[in-house]
Amino acid sequence: MDGECFQQFLDWLSVRLGSDHAILQIDQAPAHTSSAIVWQEFIIPLFQPASAPELNPIESLWQALKKPLKNQLFSSLQALRERIQEIFDQLTFEQVISLSSYNFILEALFYAASY
Questions:
Q1: Where are the alpha helices (DSSP H) in 18-102?
Q2: Cα separation of 43 and 33, whole Å?
Q3: Which terminus of the chain is more exposed, N or C, with fewer CB under 10 A?
Q4: Position with higher pLDDT, 74 vs 99
Q5: How many CB atoms lie within 10 A of CB 6?
Q6: Within 10 A of 98 (CB to CB), how many other CB atoms are there?
């Protein structure tokens, strides 16, 4: 991904948000930090520290996903895809929230809501 693709994503997100606000947690990849990126005022970037993947909410979700796959062999890529889909289908909304809700994200949301 490059800055142009990221800008297209931000433009798409802007349209979808309408008059809502969003806090977008992102790493410090060059595409995310480029001075050419145009940030809409209602999209607030929340940059995670450099080299800190453990702060990325998706990492906790990946860890939960990988646990039931441990020590399993699959006869094909399709069989692996089907097993991953089964695991995702079993996740509840509450589980996803508990795996991906970090205090610093919640604090940022409360801060943004105070505007």
A1: 30-33, 57-66, 77-90, 93-100
A2: 14
A3: C
A4: 74
A5: 19
A6: 11
Query: In angstroms, rounded to a whole number, what is the distance separating the alpha carbons of residues 51 and 92?
Result: 30
CA proximity to 43, closest of 6, 96, 80: 6
pLDDT score, position 69: 92
Q: How much is the pTM? A: 0.53
Tell how far CA 114 is from the center of its chain. 23
pLDDT of 10? 94
Of 90, 112, 114, 103, nearest in space to 42 by CA? 112
Contacts 24+ apart (CB under 8 A), 71-77: none
